[in-house]
Write a structure and sequence with these properties.
Layout lengths: L4 H14 L11 E11 L9 E10 L4 E8 L2 E6 L5 E15 L10 E15 L6 E3 L2 E13 L4 E10 L2 E6 L2 E7 L3 E10 L1
Length: about 190
């Protein structure tokens, strides 16, 4: 039997509409999320790659919570204007203060959220004649939406913008300063406890 996307989408929609009444997002909720993301880097010097990420959060108020997310170590090819080329690994981590405008609303099947916070990006395994890239901190902003399927399970879509600067150094001297500023979009599954 062949996989038919129309049948799969219809089954998912039917499941979401017929599932039992969802609990409200409320203070004390804990959640974990697995996500598949694509980062559109704002510089031509690095290749674009797909990645997996994990996030966990806690709601300390019906409408407010904190989230810590980390992405897998992703390998990028780089080619600088100076002619230097090679590979490096980039691993992002984000700490966000999240706002849920519909938190506390009973039976809200769609739960939008937005967050602001800080991004930490670790660069490692840099190849190319003594090349090094400093780790970086910057602003992070996120928009997302949970489509509640059951009391505990949601399908999640996210869009995240982060400020990331990659300072390439060779023998202690700056070779190039590349502004990455990735816009990351993705989808995943969230489980609430």
């Amino acid at each position: 039997m062949r996989f038919n996307p129309v049948i799969a989408a219809t089954a998912a929609l039917t499941l979401s509409l017929t599932a039992g009444q969802a609990l409200a997002y409320q203070a004390g909720d804990v959640y974990v999320r697995g996500e598949f993301v694509k980062a559109d880097i704002g510089a031509d010097e690095l290749s674009r790659e797909n990645a997996f990420g994990l996030a966990g959060g806690y709601l300390f108020h019906d409408k407010m919570g904190v989230e810590l997310g980390i992405g897998e170590d992703v390998e990028h090819d780089y080619a600088l204007d100076s002619g230097q080329a090679g590979e490096l690994d980039r691993m992002p981590a984000n700490l966000l203060l999240q706002y849920y405008p519909l938190g506390g609303v009973e039976a809200a099947r769609v739960q939008p959220f937005m967050g602001v916070g800080v991004n930490y990006t670790r660069f490692s395994s840099v190849s190319g004649a003594g090349m090094d890239v400093d780790d970086d901190y910057g602003f992070a902003g996120q928009l997302g939406m949970d489509l509640v399927i059951t009391d505990n399970l949601s399908a999640t879509a996210i869009a995240r913008y982060t400020e990331v600067d990659a300072e390439f150094e060779q023998a202690g001297q700056t070779v190039d300063d590349v502004r990455l500023d990735p816009l990351t979009v993705g989808a995943g599954v969230t489980y609430r406890f």
